[in-house]
Amino acid sequence: MRPANPDLAPRPGLSRDEMEALQRRVAEAAVFEDELPFDPASVALDDPGATTLTGTDASSDTGPPLIAGIDQAFLDDRAVSAVVVLRGGEVVERAYAVSDLDLPYIPGLLSFREGGPILDALAKLEHDPDLLVFDGSGRIHFRQAGLATHVGVVCDVPSIGVAKSLLCGTPDEDVDGHPKGWNTPIRADDAVDAVGGHPATPETVIGYAFQSRQYDSQPIVNPLYVSPGHRLSPETTVDLVSRLGGDYKLPEPTRLADAYADEVKAQYE
């Protein structure tokens, strides 16, 4: 797939001020309302846990949408970016790229470390996904432009951020010890900037804490922090993540991408 907004793509050689300024441009271009090419009710995993290519006709305009899970593994100063595309519960395509890393991890600037390598992998796809699901934040971000927002805007594809920890924002409720399926809004706090037409008041919902899995006898599994990346509302975002859940904590698309990244990494080690 080709970037729709290549001028907003993360690139090396920028100062911190320049990177933050680019993130604000990305946030201004982001849409945090539903603009989807499919009905969210059509999203389901008919066969959670599918791990092999099926030969399904991914070019068909009928049936469930094409959903791409994206994750990475790391080889010293290189990133292994993996994309797994599903239609329903079937894997229809996989692609990866091994790319040099230009930056160390800097909180709030993850897209400048990992966004370029992810775009390298997306460029190898034969078909264009209808939805991108990232291991990382979207609108839950200091400038409302996390990894899922940045890459989603560059590609102009609906996107979701699924993070394992909370970068910023305040949950409405305590997040510990809840049953599977529980969720609560994450609202903007003082660490979140208002950008363009996107407010950051204490009433602004920027994502959700979502309990994707839990043990009944000992509730010790932490929630996920899900947020819209682009062309999605927070409410539809948490609904889609729920629909994409399988037998594990992570949504099935990113779980499969994580496993594929590790598989590719092992070939290079």
Automatic annotation (TrEMBL):
GO terms for cellular component: cytoplasm. It is found in: Cytoplasm. InterPro entries: Endonuclease-V (IPR007581). The record marks 105 as: Interaction with target DNA. It catalyses: Endonucleolytic cleavage at apurinic or apyrimidinic sites to products with a 5'-phosphate. Gene3D superfamilies: archaeoglobus fulgidus dsm 4304 superfamily. Its main location: cytoplasm. Mg(2+) binds at residues 71, 135. Pfam families: Endonuclease_5. One of its GO terms (molecular function) is deoxyribonuclease V activity. Its cofactor is Mg(2+). HAMAP family: Endonuclease_5. Belongs to the endonuclease V family. This is Endonuclease V. The gene is nfi.
